[in-house]
Amino acid sequence: MKCFHCDGTGEVITSNPAERVFAVLKGRSQTWLYKASDVDKATIYRFLSGKEMSVKNLSKVCKALDVSLDWVVNGEEN
Description:
Number of strands: 0
CATH architecture: Orthogonal Bundle
Helix content: 40-55%
Radius of gyration: 12 Å
Structural class: mainly alpha
Shape: globular
Number of helices: 5
Oligomer: single chain
Largest sheet: none
Number of domains: 1
């Protein structure tokens, strides 16, 4: 499956945190994410729809997806 969020190198190209999280879900569902992260399903849905999420919850999401909080928030690794 082609990733519409990636360039030819597989680098994820997005402009906001929700898009970065969506890109690394890689076909996994929002249900999977809320179960894996222990973040309320409605909170996950609102975040992926463009609303803000607390740093605490976003950290849990990042841990579940094995990505850094810096990358999700800023699009950059330290």
